[in-house]
Amino acid sequence: MTFKAEYIWIDGTEPTAKLRSKTKIMDGAPSGDVADLPIWGFDGSSTNQAEGHASDRVLKPVFTCPDPIRGGADVLVLCEVFNIDMTPHESNTRAALRPVAEQFAGQTPIFGIEQEYTFFDGHRPLGFPEGGFPAAQGGYYCGVGADEIFGRQIVEKHLDNCLAAGLGISGINAEVMPGQWEFQVGPLSPLEVSDQLWVARWLLYRTAEDFNVSATLDPKPVKGDWNGAGAHTNFSTQAMREGYDAIITACESLGEGSKPMDHVKNYGAGIDDRLTGLHETAPWNEYSYGVSDRGASVRIPWQVEQDRKGYIEDRRPNANVDPYVVTRLIVDTCCTALEKADQV
Ligand code: ADP
Ligand code: MN
Ligand code: MN
Ligand code: MN
């Protein structure tokens, strides 16, 4: 017996990396344990990860799940990219998250990431009429009906595929601009949420491919008076889930010194186009936090203030953010501050 293993990796495209994948035919049956999957190689000169004269790069499996596209015993295999001396390739941002996640594992940080995205039919967002614009924003968010909703069949198929793969999807909704949607992954640990978000992104592109539709994480797919696409990042530690002081410590730590800029410049290419202060965003160069405030950088949900415990939402990350980077920065900044304040 054989099975198909779809090896997926993150490439070196700049400024925003792309997903790549190729298929390996394997003998036997998958064990379900990622450690049983072999390393593999690829041509890094075709993915902006090597020069042609020394082009070999290594794929090391780090996460596996059932392949809902092919079904049967077939699997998806998410990989980290290494150089042939087995040092992490410079595009490998997961390698930098590993030690930080381990250092602060005692605080049990968890994340729920809201992935917004936009479907495109050729050069137009799905639902935009040829050579013009649809009715202004207002009725599309969480809408229903053929005049407001574009691509639901694909969205439902993607959701089913994510569930069949066993990913920790927690919901979906239609967004503010026609053709724009969201799914949420989590709450899960930093590495889990990031691995599963990358696989959910791959499944999004792959599912839409069968409908001849493309999906993009472009943070501002239509200029002008149309909402951008973000990746709101919800975060808590054990102490935050137990008390409000830790919630405030986390919010304050994100505003200290150079932290706002350290974070924002790593929250996805083109962030200044999206974080304008309009369309439910805070200006990219001014840090703020507030209860229920969708115009703040970081929002404390109203029920969190009510319950005096829970989580915070960093609203700044772009849809095209690298989850390995945003979770590393938030864990590093907030967990360091919580440790200093003895709120662990
Ligand atoms: P919004 O109201 O901002 O649209 P969503 O419901 O889309 O919020 O997303 C909220 C996300 O926060 C979900 O992925 C959810 O699983 C996650 N979440 C809930 N509780 C926590 C928590 N304690 N820590 C981290 N994330 C959480
Ligand atoms: Mn949401
Ligand atoms: Mn949203
Ligand atoms: Mn949100």
Structural description of this entry:
The protein folds into 2 domains: 2-91, Ubiquitin-like (UB roll); 101-343, Creatine Kinase, Chain A, domain 2 (2-Layer Sandwich). Helix content is 27%, strand content 25%. The chain has 9 helices and 14 strands. The chain has helices at residues 94-103, 152-164, 190-209, 238-242, 244-253, 259-264, 271-274, 302-307, 323-340, and strands at 2-10, 19-27, 40-43, 56-66, 75-82, 110-121, 124-125, 169-174, 180-188, 214-216, 233-236, 289-291, 298-300, 312-314. The strands form 2 sheets. Strands 6, 7, 8, 9, 10, 11, 12, 13 and 14 form a 9-stranded mixed β-sheet that branches. Strand 8 and strand 9 (180-188) form a beta hairpin. The mean pLDDT is 96. One manganese (II) ion (MN) is lined by residues 114, 182. Adenosine-5'-diphosphate is lined by residues 110-112, 114, 170-171, 184, 186-187, 232, 234-236, 241, 310-311, 313.
